[in-house]
What does this fold into?
Amino acid sequence: MNAAEDITVASEDRLRADLYNFLGLMLSGPPDQLLLDQCAGLSGDESELGKAIAGLARVAKASKPKTVESEFNALFIGLGRGELLPYASYYLTGFLNEKPLATLRTDMAARSMSRAPNVFEPEDNIASLMEMMAGMIVGRFGQVATLDDQKTFYNKHIAPWAGHFFSDLEAAKNSILYASLGAVGREFMDIEREAFRMTAA
It folds into this structure.
């Protein structure tokens, strides 16, 4: 079997994966000038998600890497801890490294997913989960996940808390560029949740 016929992904699924990847990238560390320029070049349409993307592009155009790095640190790192703790365990139980993380690790192992050797954060952080969904959609873990498998993973590990996290990100007092990213994430989570709800169980 050659590489071309190896993995075929529908264009709308490729777009979904791209957006998950983008959210994961923006949430895993502060963007450099190149990524800010890419954000500034985004264009939206008249949908709620499109308007949120256009809003993010406007803010990115006026942002500088140094300022965004300070914002990222205040939100997620801080002295002791940032304004937000972007972990499923924390959102669902009030504590880090709890049952949601153990459940996720089991599900990751079943899907041949493993944490990158240079990553030391718990796997249930929002950036990792966004990257996992993208990987499942495009077959990065060996095969393209069926819609049912995507739905199961999403409903179990993302749907119960990601929307709340993105809303908190929008409203966080240290959030400027990331408030716009929060709007994009919240709208996208709504779309995904509704799309999965409409697929047969």
Remarks:
- The mean pLDDT is 94.
- Residues 3-198 form a domain with the TorD-like fold (CATH 1.10.3480.10).
- The chain has one domain: 3-198.
- DSSP finds eleven helices and no strands in the chain.
